[in-house]
Each structure stands twice: as structure tokens, then as C-alpha cells.
Amino acid sequence: MPRRAVALLVETSNSYSRGVLEGIVDYVRKHERWSIFLPEQERGGEPPKWLGRWQGDGIIARIENDSIARALTRSQMPVVDVSAARHLPSIPWVETDDVAIARLAVEHLLDRGFRNLAYCGDPGFNWSNWRRDEFRKLAQSENFEPHVFDTLTRNDAKYSWTREKRGLAAWLKRLPRPVGIIACYDIQAQKILEVCRELDIAVPEEVAVLGVDNDHLLCELADPPLSSVICNTRRTGYEAASLLDRLMRGETVGDAPVLVKPIGIQARQSTDILAIDDPDVVAALRFIREHVFEGINVADIVRHVPLSRRVLESRFQKMLGRSPHAEINRLKLDRIKQLLRETDFSLPEIASRTGFEHDEYLSVFFRKATGMPPGKYRRTP
């Protein structure tokens, strides 16, 4: 049987899209091989001229405008959408779980003691609006005031950075401090950091900034380096390829969205602060962060701060809603997950780097926390 010919109308200019493409590659390697056509494609650009005469079997596309939607409809080929714009609402689509992203972002800032939280979005994108709406719901349930700013959209023909910067500056001046700001994505977060720098607002001491997408280059080049929500883009691509494979085999898959949850948060300097009024709890948290992978326990923390164990645990519970022991385990688990995802280190090496004497102890800890062994977690796309 000849290979199926599949076109990928997905731009390669940003880390999100490249991650989606990598997920498609993962699927193809593990299943039936496809003949892949990946042309140069601008996000939101006009449909390529070759599309009308291309004789392929299926398409995965970021459908960002009506002209692309019309061209794909005319092609009469199986299509899977990896855009939130929904220009073709009747076809299968795979996107980020924006509710889960907003919840994870809010949790990250609440964990650092922030009670003033804000969201900065771009109303030209559905995913930004969905994250904003969930942010408002979370504000109601968590009893904080939602400070929301929808900036000028880049989709506006009259857009200018000068006008957007002016609006951002006015908003930032009005916000209570300290405040944690969730930007709809990393580029928006970079803009906030630039305006903070021009206004001489200290980051993260006065304003902590969190992005979404974890574009490594953008985040590391930001000043200070930008914390960001890690979207599971490879999973998005993998699921899109799976749907297209089923469509090309003649299966009916429906138009219900496949929403992919984020992996976690890559914390960097832009949120490396604790907005807590209790100096002893702050000192304890800093001690934990600095020594968590050295095999410390609660007794070690008590020796570092002028509090009894009972008082320390009581204040921790009041400020953070968890115990010092739970905080140690949370940081260890986050680091283990990161090393399993991003490195090929052996389990003994990961155990050594995260404060476990033996990899067997790490495996028991990880299985108890996640319900699965480390090896299975590493193999999960």
C-alpha cells in the first residue's frame, strides 16, 4: 500500500508550532509512515496556490482565517485543525486546555503568596479570551479581585506598539502591589517586562510576570528571565496526527475538541519571589528551595528558623495551605518530572540529583504521588 500524502499547513516560526510538528513526527514514527509535505507557511497567511491542485490524502492545519478555511473546504480532503480560531467548526480540532492553563498559572502565583492577581490578554485570539474568562471565575472562587487588561490586538490593522505600550503603562501604574500578572502568552509577557523596565518597576519584587508557551529563547532572553506555563505541544501534534489517521481510514471522529492539558510551569526569575508578610515563613521557604535536593526534612528547617515545629507547620498551613513536608515533596516531584521529560538521565542519576539515596526510593515516592512508575511517565507522549 503506498504511503499516504499529508500536508502540514503549520508555521515553523514559533516554539508552539514547532512543538506541534514534533508531535506529528512522533506519531508518524510510531505508526504508519506518511509522505509529509511541509511548505513555508506564514501564520494567518493566504492559502498557498498549490493547494487547489494538490492530490494528497489529508491535511493538518492552523486555520487562522476564512480564506484558508474556504480553500480547505474546497479540497474535500480530511482535515484536522490545530487552531483555536474555529473558522471551520464542523471539523475535528486539537488545542490547549485553556481552563487548565489559567488554573495552573493562578495556582503558581497564589503559591508564592500573591493576593493581587492580574491578567493581560489579546482579545484577537480565542485562547487568550478563554484563559481570561477562567481567570475571572477563579478570582470569584479564590476571593481575589480580578484585574484584567485586554491590550490592542495584533490583528488590528491600526495596531501600533506605541499605542499598546501607552495603555500597558497606564494599567501597570494603577495595579496594587505586589501583584502577580499572567500574560496570555510569552510575547505579551515580554512586552510587560519592557514597560516595567521603562517605568522603573521592580520585577519580581513589585510585579511578578508569568507567560504561557515556555518559548525557551524568548524566556531566557527576557530581562529578567521569564517564568512560563509549559504547554504540551508535542501531545497536541500527536493527537492531531492520530485524528487525521483515523479520518483517512474512513472513521467518523466528530467535532468535539481534544484539549491538551499543560505539563507544568518553568519557574524563572520573573516570579522568583514570595509575596508573604511572615518573614519566618519566607525564610523557611527560601531554605527549602535552596536545599530541597539535599535530602532535607522538616527538622532541618526548624533548625534554620526561630520557630518550633508546631508553630512553623501552623503558619505554613495558614499562609500556603500545606505543610513544610508537602512543600518539600512538591518541589521534588516537579523536578523529577522535569528531568524525566527533558533529559535521558538514568533513574539512579535523577535520584542523586533530587535528594534520594536510591532510585528505588524515588520510584516508590513517584508512584505514590502520580499513580504511575517513572518509566511509564517518561514514555507517555
Briefly summarize what is shown.
The protein has 381 residues and is an alpha/beta fold. It has helices at 15-30, 66-75, 98-111, 126-142, 161-174, 186-198, 216-221, 233-248, 279-291, 298-304, 309-320, 324-342, 347-353, 359-370, 374-379, and strands at 4-9, 34-37, 58-61, 79-81, 94-96, 117-121, 146-150, 179-183, 207-212, 227-230, 258-260, 264-266. The protein is globular, with a radius of gyration of 23 Å.
Could you describe the 3D structure shown?
The chain has 381 residues and is of the alpha/beta class. It folds into three domains: 4-95 and 233-260, Response regulator (Rossmann fold), CATH 3.40.50; 98-232 and 265-271, Response regulator (Rossmann fold); 279-379, Homeodomain-like (Arc Repressor Mutant, subunit A, Orthogonal Bundle), CATH 1.10.10.60. The protein is built from 15 helices and twelve strands. The protein is globular and about 75 Å long.
| Overall pLDDT metric | 92
| Residues in β-strands, percent | 5-15%
Q: How far apart are the termini?
A: 28 Å
Class computed from helices, strands and strand pairing: alpha/beta
Order of adjacent strands in the largest pleated sheet: 7-6-8-9-10-12
SSE run: EHEEHEEHEHEHEHEHEHEEHHHHHHH
Count of DSSP-assigned helices: 15
Keywords: DNA-binding, Transcription, Transcription regulation
Organism: Allorhodopirellula solitaria
Pfam families: HTH_18, PBP1_XylR, Peripla_BP_3
InterPro entries: Homeodomain-like_sf, HTH_AraC, HTH_AraC-typ_CS, LacI/GalR-like_sensor, Peripla_BP_I, XylR_PBP1
